[in-house]
Design brief:
It is built from 16 helices and 22 strands. The protein has about 600 residues and is of the alpha+beta class. The protein folds into 2 domains: about 100 residues, Immunoglobulin-like (Sandwich), CATH 2.60.40; about 500 residues, Purple Acid Phosphatase, chain A, domain 2, CATH 3.60.21.10. Strands 13-14-15-16-18-17-19 form a 7-stranded mixed sheet. A 6-stranded mixed sheet has the order 12-11-10-20-21-22. Strands 3, 4, 7, 8 and 9 form a 5-stranded antiparallel sheet that branches. The radius of gyration is 23 Å and the shape is globular. It starts with 5 loop residues before the first strand and ends with a strand.
C-alpha cells in the first residue's frame, strides 16, 4: 500500500492542445504522476498548507483528437482508477485544427452536498444524474468539452449534519463563530471532501474538464452586497479567519485548476506556494490581502493595488468563454457601485474582442432578471445612495433582506455590459463591423481609445472585418430556478442574438413561497408598475428590453450549450424522482 492516498480527485481541469492539468488532494506528501495509455505523462510534488497536501500535475505529450485513459500514481504506486462500476477516467483532446468541431458546454450552479449528506430532503442531484447518464453512454466521444460551474459549489453557511457534528467536536474556534458554519481552512476542506467524493461526482470530475467561479455561499450569504454589509462583517471577531480561509481554500480547490498550463507556470502565488515548505502563512496572507480589494476606491490606484484577478477567459474551438468574478472585486462605494473595478472592466473589453463565432460570458449572477424584479433592484440602488440617511438605511435593510444585489442593483455595470454586447453584436448587411466605440465603466476609461489602467494593455485591436459573432450567451445561476431570455436592442444594427441562460440549482431548491413572485416577475403589467416605481427614484429607461423564451422551471437542473459552426442551441434537463434527467427546455439560439 502507498504511504499516501487520494483524498479528493483526481479532477481533470483544463485540456489545452496537447497538455492537460490534473488536480489532486493527498493524505500525505507525495510525488504525483499521471500517465495515459498512449504514453503522455506528467509529474509534480505535492505542496502543503494547513497540514493538507495538494498537487496540480501538467500532463504533456497528448495526441490531438484522441481519447486516452489515464492512471494516477503516488510515489510510484497506482491509486487511480478505483475498482467499481465506472469505466476508466479519460482525457479527450480536440483536433489540432478544431475550428469546425462542435463545442458542448455543460453548466449549472448551486449544489449542496449529495442527498445522504444534506440537512433537508431535496430533489435528486442534477450533477449526479448527469454523471450516471454520461457513464452509461457507450461512446466516449459524447463527452462534453467543458463543465462550467457557476457558483455555490459548496455552502460554508448552510452545512450538512455530518459537518455540523464535526464542528461541535472542534475544541478551538474563533470567539463568536457560528456553530453551524465553517470558519477555518481545515473546516472548508471537509466541505469539498463531502461534495466531491461521491462516486458519480468523482468519476465525472475526473473525466470532463471543468472550470469554476465562486458566488456568495463559498463565503457567506450576501457576501459583498454593500459597503455597509462589509463594515458589519468586519466587526465580527471570527470574520477575519473566515474570509481568509474561504478565499485561500477557493484558490486551492477551485481557481488553481481554472488556469491553463502556461498560466499556472506564470502565476506568482503558485510559485510562492510550491516553493514554500509550508504555504500556510502565504495563503493566509493572500486571503486577507485579496479581501481588501473592495475597500479600495475606484480609479487607477485600485488597479495598481489589485493583488489577484479571479476572472479568467479561454477558447474552445470557435467559442470564447469569459468567466466573471461577480463578488470578490465589486466596487461598493455609494454612487459608484460596479460589478467589476475599472481595470477588470478593461480586461473584459479586451477579452470580448477577437476572432470567434460564439461569445459566452459566465456570470454567477443573472444579467437579465424577471423585469419586475430588475426594476425593483434598480430602484433600491438609487434609494440606497440617498443623502437622506433614513431612506438609505431602509433601502440597505431591504437590499439584504430580499437579496437585491444582482446586475440590476449595479445599474452602471448592467448598462455597460449591454452596451458592450450591442457593440460586439453590431454589424451591417454585408457582415462588416461598425466603427468601434467602447462602453465605459464607472471610474474607468470614458473616451474611446483612452489607455487602460497602468500595467494593462490599451484598447484592443478592432475586430477584423467579417461577420459579427453568431451568438452571445450569458450563463448564470444563483436564483434557484431556470429560464431562458433574449435581449432586445433598440439599435437595428445589432444582428447577433444575445441571450440570458440561467440554470440553477444543481442540488438545492427555491422556497415554495418564492415561486409565485418569481413567475409574476415576468408579468408585463407588474413590470410596467415596477418600472414606474423605479423612475420615481430617477433610474431612467433601460437601454434594452428582454423577453422570456422558456421557464421558469423550479426543479434541480443542468444545462447544455451546443455550438456547431454558427448555430447555437441550449437544453435544460431537470431531474426525475427516480434520479434520471428529462428535458424541460430546448431553444435554438441562432436562426442559421
Amino acid at each position: 500500500m502507498p504511504a499516501a492516498d487520494l483524498l479528493v480527485g483526481p479532477l481533470l481541469r483544463r485540456v489545452v492542445g496537447t497538455q492537460a492539468t490534473i488536480w489532486v488532494e493527498t493524505s500525505a506528501p507525495a510525488t504525483v504522476t499521471v500517465q495515459t495509455a498512449d504514453g503522455a505523462t506528467g509529474t509534480a510534488p505535492t505542496f502543503s498548507a494547513y497540514q493538507h497536501h495538494y498537487a496540480l500535475v501538467v500532463v504533456s505529450g497528448l495526441t490531438p483528437d484522441t481519447i486516452s485513459s489515464y492512471e494516477v500514481l503516488l510515489d510510484g504506486e497506482p491509486v487511480w482508477p478505483l475498482p467499481g462500476p465506472y469505466r476508466p477516467s479519460v482525457i479527450r483532446t480536440r483536433a489540432a485544427d478544431d475550428r469546425d468541431q462542435p463545442v458542448r458546454l455543460v453548466f449549472g450552479s448551486c449544489r449542496e452536498a449529495t442527498q445522504h449528506a444534506t440537512a433537508r430532503e431535496l430533489p435528486p442531484d442534477a450533477l449526479d444524474a448527469y454523471a450516471r447518464g454520461l457513464a452509461a453512454t457507450p461512446d466516449p466521444a459524447d463527452l462534453p468539452d467543458l463543465l462550467v460551474l457557476l457558483g455555490d459549489q459548496v455552502y460554508a453557511d448552510e452545512t450538512s449534519p455530518t459537518v455540523r457534528r464535526l464542528l461541535r467536536r472542534r475544541r478551538r474556534r474563533p470567539v463568536g463563530a457560528p456553530v453551524d458554519q465553517v470558519v477555518s481552512f481545515d473546516e472548508y476542506t471537509k466541505l469539498y471532501l463531502e461534495s466531491w467524493r461521491a462516486p458519480e461526482t468523482r468519476w465525472l470530475l475526473s473525466t470532463v474538464p471543468s472550470v469554476m467561479i465562486f458566488d456568495d455561499h463559498e463565503i457567506v450569504d450576501d457576501w459583498n452586497t454593500s459597503a455597509a454589509w462589509r463594515a458589519h462583517a468586519r466587526a465580527q471577531p471570527w470574520w477575519s479567519e473566515r474570509i481568509s480561509s474561504g478565499l485561500a481554500s477557493y484558490w486551492v480547490y477551485q481557481h488553481l485548476g481554472n488556469l491553463a498550463p502556461a498560466e499556472v507556470a506564470a502565476d506568482p502565488l503558485y510559485a510562492k506556494v510550491t516553493a514554500a515548505e509550508d504555504a500556510t502563512d502565504t495563503l493566509r496572507d493572500f486571503g486577507h490581502q485579496v479581501d481588501q480589494e473592495s475597500d479600495l476606491a475606484p480609479g487607477p490606484e485600485r488597479w495598481q493595488a489589485m493583488r489577484y484577478q479571479w476572472s479568467f477567459a479561454l477558447d474552445v474551438g470557435r467559442t470564447r468563454l469569459v468567466m466573471l468574478d461577480n463578488r470578490g472585486s465589486r466596487v461598493l462605494e455609494p454612487g459608484r457601485r460596479a460589478m467589476l473595478p475599472p481595470g477588470e472592466w478593461s480586461w473584459l473589453v479586451d477579452q470580448a474582442h477577437g476572432s470567434y463565432d460564439h461569445l459566452v460570458v459566465g456570470s454567477s449572477l443573472p444579467w437579465l432578471l424577471p423585469p419586475a424584479i430588475h426594476h425593483v433592484e434598480a430602484w433600491n440602488e438609487v434609494l440606497a445612495d440617498s443623502h437622506r440617511h433614513w431612506v438609505a438605511d431602509a433601502a440597505e435593510k431591504l437590499r439584504r433582506a430580499v437579496d437585491l444585489e444582482h446586475w440590476a442593483a449595479f445599474r452602471r455595470s448592467f448598462d455597460a455590459l449591454g452596451a458592450l454586447f450591442a457593440r460586439i453584436g453590431g454589424g451591417t448587411p454585408d457582415g462588416a463591423t461598425r466603427p468601434r466605440r467602447e462602453p465605459s465603466e464607472p471610474g474607468g476609461p470614458s473616451e474611446p481609445g483612452q489607455p487602460g489602467p497602468p500595467g494593462e494593455p490599451g484598447q484592443p485591436a478592432e475586430r477584423a472585418p467579417g461577420t459579427a459573432p453568431a451568438s452571445i450567451s450569458v450563463l448564470s445561476g444563483d436564483v434557484h430556478h431556470s429560464y431562458l431570455a433574449r435581449a432586445r436592442f433598440a439599435d437595428p444594427a445589432v444582428v447577433t442574438p444575445v441571450h440570458q441562460l440561467t440554470c440553477s440549482p444543481l442540488h438545492n431548491q427555491v422556497p415554495a413561497g418564492m415561486r409565485l413572485p418569481l413567475r409574476l416577475g415576468w408579468s408585463p403589467a407588474l413590470a410596467m408598475a415596477a418600472r414606474a416605481l423605479s423612475r420615481t427614484g430617477g433610474t431612467g429607461r433601460p437601454a434594452l428590453r428582454w423577453t422570456k423564451l422558456a421557464g421558469p422551471y423550479f426543479g434541480n437542473a443542468i444545462g447544455t450549450l451546443r455550438h456547431d459552426g454558427r448555430t447555437a442551441e441550449v437544453t435544460i434537463a431537470g431531474t426525475t424522482s427516480a434520479g434520471g434527467l428529462r428535458e424541460v427546455m430546448r431553444h435554438q439560439l441562432t436562426s442559421g
